[in-house]
Each structure stands twice: as structure tokens, then as C-alpha cells.
Amino acid sequence: MNANPRTPIDAGALRAALPAWRRVDVLENTGSTNADVLALAKEGSPERVAVVASEQTAGRGRLSRSWTAPAGSAIAVSALFRPVGVAPARLGLLPLVAGLAVVDMVRSVAGFPSLADGGDGPVVGLKWPNDVLLDGRKLCGILVEAESIDPPALVVGIGVNVDLTEEELPVPHATSLALAGAPVLDRTKLTAGLLDALDRREAQWRRNPVSLMADYRANCLTMGAEVRVELPGGAELLGTAVDVRQGGELVVRDDATGEERVVSAGDVRHLRARGGGYAGDGLRR
Ligand code: BT5
After folding, report:
1. Which residues on adjacent β-strands are paired with residue 262?
2. What is the model's pTM?
3. Where does ligand 1 bind, in terms of residues with CB under 6 Å?
4. Which atom of ligand 1 is nearest to the CA of 131?
5. Ligand 1 center to residue 63 CA distance, Å?
6. In whole angstroms, what separates CA 95 from the centre of its chain?
7. Where are the beta strands (DSSP E) in the chain?
8. Are 284 and 172 in contact (CB under 8 A)?
9. Residue 210, SS3?
10. Which of 201, 237, 205 is nearest to 222 (CA)?
11. Atom 19 in ligand 1: which residue has the minimum CA distance?
12. Cis bond leading into 172, ω under 30°?
């Protein structure tokens, strides 16, 4: 356990650990790291630049929601990618790529080495499409915003809860690495591991999307789970998630009809996850 987990991020050590990144700005506080990197993109910045902040005063979630964490308690990072050559229809997979990178970091740096499927250790994995769950609670939020689509200039924003206490959690179904008992809470090491994983997964996505999606499926807790999907427009689908397609869509076997339905957008709840555990909104330990 880190004796003082809210020490500042060591910018020099972070940059030294990330030779694949052209530029990494480390800020004490900012409005939103996504807004900062969108501005860099607009100025014509090359890709693989990142902004990291210890505190955000206007952190953005999806659909105009906000993202909050006490100063120094979390990772807030945004990164610019220009995936030239990737078809516009496939750009929507980037949030899944980012989710997988967070899982990599949680396993390789935070100290939860394996998917303890149904075992005693914390279960880490993805709820389709890109929520990273730790013991069924939300550890991280991902927001991808486009400065342009053609040519593509995409900002990947990631917020990871590092050492928030139970009282500091903004919502009850959230969690932090510390609450799950992670042995490593050093934000310099965690941020370096996250940007390194993001660099590798994004490159894998461009070069070998088939292997990337195979890795995604292997880390997706929704696969095989009984789910309730709230579809856009308000309809509901109850069934078993049987696959994630190459384009990122979820395939659900409908309980009512036995038919397989392809879901490209919707809010998923895990009713019963693989290994008998539960994963989804509202769960508390
Ligand atoms: C997300 O939105 O999950 C995407 C959040 C992305 C945040 C990163 S931080 C770095 C970068 N810079 C930014 O400005 N944004 C990105 P969404 O699925 O809409 O979830 C938002 C909801 O999650 C809120 O309405 C709250 O209910 C909840 N929430 C807020 N802060 C949270 C936290 N720290 N942990 C867990 N849940 C949180």
C-alpha cells in the first residue's frame, strides 16, 4: 500500500516511461482534459500526445453528464489519435479499445493479475461496451470525442478512480482501486501503465482488429451473462449475451423467442454474470 497515495504525479518519471508518446502534459488542475486535447487537435497537433490532470473542474461524461473525483484521487487522462486508414464505420470501436487498455493496466500495474472468474480475488473485466468493472462496480469512465471524422482526429478520455474512499464515491455503484484492495496506488506508475497499454491496444486495433476483438471478448464479462438491455426508444430485451461481433455489436439470445438479436446501442445490465457473480448498476459489497 502506498504510504501517501495522493502525492503528485511525477511528470519526469511519467515521460521517461513513455517513449512512444510524443508529448505528455501533466497539469495540477484543468477544466477537462478532453477539452484540452481537443484544442491541441484543432491546432494541428500530431497524434500520441496526452494531457494528464490531478483535478478536473468540468470533467465530462457522455450525454452532457459530468465526471467528478476529489483532487489527486484519480487518473484523468486524454490522448489524441489520428487513425488514418481506419474506415469511419470502424472508428466506433475506439472506446472498446480504451476499455481493454484499462483492464490491461489494472492487471499488469495495479496488481490484480488474473480474471479471478468466480474466485475470491476481485473480478476485473468489461461490461459491454466499455465500462470497466471491478467486483461489479464501475472503476472507470471513457469518453471518446471526435475533432474530425475524415480525416480522423479522435480524443480518448479516461478517468480511473484510484484511491477514493467509500464516502468520496460520486455514485454508490462506483468503486476505486483502493476500495478493491489494489496493492499499487501510485498514480505515476498507474498512468504510465495506462498510456502504455493504450498505445499498444490502439496499434493492435489498426494492424490486427481480429486479434483485438478476440482479446476484447476474452475480457468482456457480458459474454455469457444473462442481461437486460434497455434499447434506444425504450424497449427492453431479456436474454443471454452470446457474442460480440467484429463491429462491436452485442449478440443477445432473446429469452422470449430464442432468436439471436444484434444490439448496436443500448444500456446493459448484468442479471447474472459468468461465474455466478453479479455485475451491474446498483451493486454494493
Ligand atoms: C463516462 O460517462 O463514464 C465517461 C467519463 C469520462 C471521464 C474522463 S476523465 C478524463 C477525460 N476528460 C473528461 O472531461 N472526461 C474524460 P457516463 O457513462 O456518462 O457516466 C457519467 C456518470 O457517471 C455521472 O452521471 C455519474 O453518475 C457517474 N460518475 C461521475 N463521476 C464518477 C466517478 N468518478 N466514478 C464513477 N462514476 C462516476
Report:
1. 251
2. 0.92
3. 32-34, 56, 59-63, 65, 67-69, 76-78, 138, 141-143, 157-159, 161, 170-171, 174
4. 3
5. 10
6. 7
7. 23-30, 49-56, 74-81, 124-127, 131-134, 137-149, 152-161, 226-230, 236-244, 250-254, 260-263, 267-272
8. yes
9. helix
10. 237
11. 62
12. no
Nearest CA to ligand 1 atom 27: 171
Neighbour-count burial for 14-49, b at 16+ CB within 10 Å, e otherwise: beebbeebeebbbbeebebbbbbbbebbeeebebbb
282 burial level (CB within 10 Å; 0-12, 13-18, 19+) = exposed
Helices and strands, number each (H, E), in the chain: 5, 12
User: Tens digits of per-residue pLDDT, 75-104?
Assistant: 999 999 999 999 888 999 999 999 999 999
C-alpha cell, 18: 513513455
Expressed in angstroms and rounded, the spacing between residue 183 Cα and the centre of ligand 1 is 24
Cell numbers placing 258: 430464442
The residue contributing the CA closest to ligand 1 atom 29 is 67
What is the predicted pLDDT for the residue at 98?
Answer: 98
Contact 125, 219 (CB under 8 A): yes
